[in-house]
Write a structure and sequence with these properties.
Blueprint (H helix, E strand, L loop, with lengths): L2 E3 L1 H7 L4 H8 L3 H9 L7 H11 L3 H4 E3 L13
Antiparallel strand pairs: 1-2
Length: 78
Amino acid sequence: MPIIVNLDVMLAKRKMRSRELAERVGITEQNISLLKSGKVRGVRFDTLARICDALQCQPADLLEYRPGPEPDSEEHPR
């Protein structure tokens, strides 16, 4: 997917664990893990806002666009 999630980078910069972020944001640690791995198809804006608030960052610090074909585009034609 051309959208890269840099949540693990921000957690490291803030010296915060996934568990603490999950508690502050109000979502499960497993959902944080899924976000970190990029295995989600979307994120709600209110969740993104709470993550940004907890990490004192901007959405662009967490999400990056890298153009190119999606790795599974041949398996899932649209």
